[in-house]
């Protein structure tokens, strides 16, 4: 027995939909297959960090099957910035003096996939002289010879000279200073931001090895000739500079240590360039060679710092020892930039070893 039934509204709609899809395929051809969602993460960026303040993070462009759209920057495990894909660096000004920071960089693509985070070796910020708007002055950390000190100056302390020109600020503030009564030096304490407004800039002051006293004051000026000072009523701000532990590598192949190598302190390395006389090449009329100190804290990675300037003169290098550091291993290399000549000073391959207290 056959049963004839009236089609339901839903079944009619399904049949019409099938007919419309068939007609569409006949007219326009088969539809292109929908591409699979992008699930491939970018490669981890090759990154490095350096500085004492601001602390700077640099990275090479990450690789992805689609475009990398941004990079995320982390400090001590927390994200502090997202920067566009065409950026390859980030400079961190929001620091506390004499504090350890660990940075990381992560790439992000258009689909939201994230690379593994590249975590960098910890960096220690320089000691900080902070001059807040309440007219006080504070020291974060210990001022130490051979390390820079950072100055953080609140612009509200000098409010008078504030001319503007062509839509931007036409004034600035400098910190002027001298070490041990020597010549006056100057560093900008403000910088123009993207809106052409003056904002506080961390000003690094150089404290040479052997320095004992720091004296500083602040000067504000604008294009009208207005000048204003913050100098503790003419007495200036004065600070005592401590002496670091110094290990010296002398021309006669002796080594000497002044002080104790301590955890969470600075070790300053002085090196006489006469110990490595090889590879003394010239490049464009200038010394085409340099000497580096290589060092390793415990079983960590090998790190390096430059020991000579552009004229081939010796520079002291500072090594920040972490709170957990128990052993410091040091060696040296001279490198000729023309012939790629190399020679080493490494205590006959054993390297120079120092235990911390």
TrEMBL record:
Organism expressing this protein natively: Actinoplanes xinjiangensis
Pfam families the UniProt entry points to: DUF6209
Keywords assigned by UniProt, alphabetized: Carbohydrate metabolism, Glycosidase, Hydrolase, Polysaccharide degradation, Signal
Extent of the signal sequence: 1-36
Fibronectin type-III domain sequence ranges: 41-128
InterPro entries per the UniProt record, alphabetical: DUF6209 (IPR046181), FN3_dom (IPR003961), FN3_sf (IPR036116), Ig-like_fold (IPR013783)
UniProt name for this protein: Fibronectin type-III domain-containing protein
GO biological process: polysaccharide catabolic process
UniProt GO molecular function: hydrolase activity, acting on glycosyl bonds
